[in-house]
TrEMBL record:
Annotated InterPro entries: Innate_Immune_Apopt_Reg, Znf_RING/FYVE/PHD
Record Gene3D superfamilies: Zinc/RING finger domain, C3HC4 (zinc finger)
Listed PROSITE patterns: PROKAR_LIPOPROTEIN
Protein name per UniProt: TRAF-type domain-containing protein
GO terms for cellular component: mitochondrion
Record organism: Adiantum capillus-veneris (Maidenhair fern)
Amino acid sequence: MVMKGMGDDQEEASSSSIACSSTSGCGACDHCGRQISLANLELHAMHCKRYLESCKLCGDMIPRRRAQEHYQSEHAPLKCSLCAEAFEPPLLAKHEKEQCPRRMVACSFCSFPVHAVDLAGHAEPCGNRTELCIACNKYVRLRDKIAHDLQHHTRINHGQLDHSTVDDVEPFLKKLKVGC
Ligand SMILES: [Zn+2]
Ligand SMILES: [Zn+2]
Ligand SMILES: [Zn+2]
Ligand SMILES: [Zn+2]
Ligand SMILES: [Zn+2]
């Protein structure tokens, strides 16, 4: 079982490795490390050394004349427009959307937009505010309101809704037909 499994893995690995027509065999380019068919290896290596270099920051092989471009788009630090901290471009979007302490988030109790860094300080007192529940005429803390509704009002509301739809819709439909 184990031997068979290992054999399968090796087959998969070799068949999925990078484009190399295996008729002539292949070798690794000593510049970029890719497997190249022996017939093309010399030519490739020449071309590769001349035109490609590995990025010192991420190790990607990039065309020499695009090195500057690559650096600008992948590594040149950009400042977050909100908190002014600098990030590599690929990380900046995530930072601005999910991590920046200055991004705006909505308070789950009052929906008011606040800075993420202030949310905890705002939500604590905000959730402790009470609001009159119109269904039972009691004051309920906002942080408990969802649980309160589920516990005390969900079933009743459903019952009322079901009745009202059955009772109201039929005469309403009749009226519609008559009206036409
Ligand atoms: Zn190469
Ligand atoms: Zn790079
Ligand atoms: Zn930021
Ligand atoms: Zn709030
Ligand atoms: Zn209530």
